């Protein structure tokens, strides 16, 4: 099967597994059967058709409790292509993405979404593969009052929706430095705060350390009207400690806005955010771009192969995982999409009570061991046969 025929893992399973076995296959692979789809209104379905996006929705339930009311929220992930050529003026590229995302957010509000997260560096092509500074650094903007935050503040207020906006940040107060940052905008239209990407890749064509440094914002959790949220930006998903600290700080939903390509990370994709949901008893939302972005000048991948102008398609496949280990199917590998998950946040504490992963976590043991392991004179604890 050619890459272009492979729309999603689920589409292939649905096509080839006999119906009587499919339910069990889904239960084992996804932790739940396939009968919990969210129903959308005619208006939402028709708007999604108008803007030509895949629209999918799923429900995660929790046990009914005597003392706490259910805490139901609707959370969404947006995956999208960059359609304007990368040779167009910067403001034209950014305006086109502003328009595209505004249209998708209009679908989200009719779907009753409370919190939405966009993909990593959503206002620009993922140009860091080129290692060129210009014109790409021009995409960086102020997180509180830049054009993107201004536009989203208005939409957040109008739609009563928390918006997580991962952008390239320009910090004018600190020597015009650039950061890879997620901006959190409240449903009342104000800026709540930001988180800067903690782990910067130095792998394949992901040459991001050419542009910005490791984040200095720790592991902030943002208390919103709809729940406590955090953002683990892209490559940070390979670091269990990064996920863990958002849990230690009380996150109930951790978003993972990403930009990653099939040749590099696709086999890891379904595992990492899902495992983080299990290990930390919170929900995770893994979001990846779609499409192939072509750049004006050739660049090499430092692997002896010929220079090229793109680094392969981003494979989408955005999904949501729950603390009980279950997950939604992924969006497609190649199409713009909106994934909506309705979740009862009471599930987080219920799973903590059931599995006891936090109770048995032994953080003091690891704090002590790691404090020793990072010392220059540390000797690994290996016992050898005499
Ligand atoms: N954007 C980003 O950090 N990509 C790195 C590649 C990966 O983590 O799959």
Automatic annotation (TrEMBL):
- Which biological processes are named by the entry's GO terms? beta-alanine biosynthetic process via 3-ureidopropionate
Which parts pass through the membrane? none
Please state every residue range assigned to the domain named CN hydrolase. Answer: 73-345
Q: Which domain of life is it from?
A: Eukaryota
| Keywords (A to Z) from UniProt | Hydrolase
Query: Which EC class is the enzyme in?
Result: hydrolase
Mind telling me which InterPro entries this protein's record contains? Aliph_Amidase/BUP, C-N_Hydrolase, C-N_Hydrolase_sf
The annotated pathway is: Amino-acid biosynthesis; beta-alanine biosynthesis
Gene Ontology molecular functions:
beta-ureidopropionase activity
Pfam family, any one:
CN_hydrolase
E.C. number: 3.5.1.6
Gene3D superfamilies reported in the protein's UniProt record: Carbon-nitrogen hydrolase
Q: Which reaction does it catalyse?
A: 3-(carbamoylamino)propanoate + H2O + 2 H(+) = beta-alanine + NH4(+) + CO2; 3-(carbamoylamino)-2-methylpropanoate + H2O + 2 H(+) = (R)-3-amino-2-methylpropanoate + NH4(+) + CO2
Q: What SUPFAM superfamilies does the database record attribute to this sequence?
A: Carbon-nitrogen hydrolase
Family in the record: Belongs to the carbon-nitrogen hydrolase superfamily. BUP family.
Q: What is this protein called?
A: Beta-ureidopropionase
């Amino acid at each position: 099967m050619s890459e272009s025929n492979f729309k999603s893992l689920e589409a292939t399973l649905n096509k080839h597994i006999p119906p009587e076995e499919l339910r069990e296959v889904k239960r084992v692979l996804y932790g739940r059967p396939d009968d919990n789809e969210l129903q959308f209104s005619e208006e939402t379905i028709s708007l999604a058709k108008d803007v030509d996006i895949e629209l999918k929705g799923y429900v995660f339930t929790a046990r009914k409790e005597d003392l706490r009311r259910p805490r139901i929220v609707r959370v969404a992930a947006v995956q999208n292509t960059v359609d304007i050529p990368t040779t167009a003026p910067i403001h034209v590229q950014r305006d086109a993405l502003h328009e595209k995302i505004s249209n998708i957010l209009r679908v989200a509000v009719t779907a009753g979404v409370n919190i939405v997260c966009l993909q990593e560096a959503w206002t620009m092509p993922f140009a860091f593969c080129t290692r060129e500074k210009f014109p790409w650094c021009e995409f960086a903007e102020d997180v509180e009052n830049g054009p993107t935050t201004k536009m989203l503040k208005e939409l957040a207020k109008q739609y009563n929706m928390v918006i997580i906006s991962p952008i390239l940040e320009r910090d004018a107060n600190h020597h015009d430095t650039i950061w890879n940052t997620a901006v959190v905008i409240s449903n009342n239209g104000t800026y709540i705060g930001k988180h800067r990407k903690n782990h910067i890749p130095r792998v394949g064509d992901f040459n991001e350390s050419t542009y910005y440094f490791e984040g200095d914002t720790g592991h902030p959790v943002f208390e919103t009207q709809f729940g406590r949220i955090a953002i683990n930006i892209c490559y940070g998903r390979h670091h269990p400690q990064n996920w863990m600290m958002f849990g230690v700080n009380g996150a109930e939903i951790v978003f993972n806005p990403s930009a990653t390509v099939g040749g590099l990370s696709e086999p890891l994709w379904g595992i990492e955010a899902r495992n983080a949901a299990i290990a930390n008893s919170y929900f995770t939302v893994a979001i990846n771009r779609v499409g192939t972005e072509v750049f004006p000048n050739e660049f090499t991948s430092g692997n002896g192969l010929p220079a090229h102008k793109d680094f392969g398609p981003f494979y989408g496949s955005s999904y949501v995982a729950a603390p009980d280990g279950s997950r939604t199917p992924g969006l497609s590998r190649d199409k713009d999409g909106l994934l909506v998950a309705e979740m009862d946040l009471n599930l987080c504490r219920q799973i903590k009570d059931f599995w006891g992963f936090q109770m048995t976590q032994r953080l003091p043991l690891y704090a002590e061991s790691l404090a020793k392991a990072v010392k220059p004179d540390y000797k690994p604890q290996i016992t050898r046969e005499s």
